[in-house]
Amino acid sequence: MGIPTPPRESAPAYDELFHDHPVNGTPPSGSRSAPQYSAVPQDDVELESGQHNHASSSAASQQQPESLAQTIAGVFRPKPHVHCEQCDVQTAARERREAEKHCCAMVAVTFMVGFVCIMVLGIVVANAQIKMKKHMHD
To answer: Locations of Polar residues compositional bias (predicted)?
Structure first.
C-alpha cells in the first residue's frame, strides 16, 4: 500500500478499441440514428377513475350533514349503488388483477413447498446413507 501515483497514460476510449465489434454494428438505443419509440397509451381503466362520477353523489352533497345517530345507523344500512358500464369495467379489471395475483402467489407457494420437501427428503436420504456406511464398517 504505497503512495498513490498519478496515471502515466489515460485509458483508450471504448469506441477506439471496439468500433469494429459485431455488437456495435447496430446503433445504441439512445442514438439519433436508431428508430425512436412512441409512447404506448395506458389502458388501465382505474387510472381514469377520477373522471368517473355518479349523479347520486352530487345529490348527497347537497343534503344537510348527518347527526351522530344517523351516521352510526348508516353503517348497518346498505347503501344502494347504481352500477354503470364504467363501474362494471373497473370491477372486472380489478377482479382479473386479483385473480392473476392469487394465481401467481399459489404458484410461488407451490414451488416453495416443493423445494422444502425436496430438501427434507435429501437430508433424510443423506442421513440414511451415512448410517448405512457406518454400520457396514462396524
So the answer is: 26-36
Using the Cα atoms of residue 108, residue 110, residue 116 and residue 119 in order, give the sign of their dihedral.
negative
Q: Quick one: three-class SS letters along 87-103?
A: HHHHHHHHHHHHHHHHH
Name which of 65, 44, 42, 61 is nearest 53 in CA terms. 61
Residue with cell 435429501: 122
Q: Find out whether 56 and 82 touch, Cβ atoms under 8 Å.
A: yes
59/83 Cα distance (integer angstroms): 16
44 in Cβ contact with 93 (< 8 Å): yes
Query: How many residues make up the chain in this entry?
Result: 138
DSSP labels, 42-102? P--GGGGGGG---HHHHHHHTSPPPPHHHHHHHHHSPPP----HHHHHHHHHHHHHHHHHH
pTM, rounded to two decimals = 0.42
- Reported as a single tens digit per residue, the pLDDT across 72-104 is 777 777 666 667 888 888 888 999 999 999 999
